[in-house]
Amino acid sequence: MSEEANEGEELSEAEPVEAETAEAEAVEAEEEPQGLPGVAFFWGLNLFDVETEADESDPEGYRPRAAKIGPKIRGEALGASVYDLDPGESVCPYHYEYGNEEWLIVLTGKPTLRDENGDDFELKPWDVAVFVDGPEGAHKVTNKTNEPVRIVILSTKNEPAISLYPDSGKIGVWPPGKLFRLDDEVDYWEGELEPRAEPEDA
Which of 101, 114, 130, 185 shows its CA 20 to 30 Å from the CA of 196? Predict the structure, then answer.
């Protein structure tokens, strides 16, 4: 038998082993999380692929479909949510934050932003707006077009989180997750002072 024939026989015997190895590697690749090239694992997602859900208890006009993405990518210091707005829907009432900063990034559509002066601006995809701490960060995001809108809002996560609503004169605090009318303001000492005890006679 020639040397070339021997080599052929050796290759034939090795083929099943190589096939099994290739199959095992393919299965292993399918089981491993897919991410960036050259990175063993990537905790990430595509903002265009996120599935959102509506809260049916929200009133009409404030019924966005939303999804929190912070927990999905192991976020701790920052929070982020994707919002889908059908025509005529807003994310939430006009408000501003105390103690937190928010960022808005437009992904698709042309939402209308009401700013701290009450003026409306139509945004476009990839526009970014920052809502700073305090009255200068007042905002409301609404879809006033006939096309769907998708945005993402990022925020710091300081607690307690305080929101003030200029249109309705409310203030909300989280936790405990309660809202109050500003007109119900009371004096600092309200309900704190007790009648002064008179000294007893010796």
Answer: 185
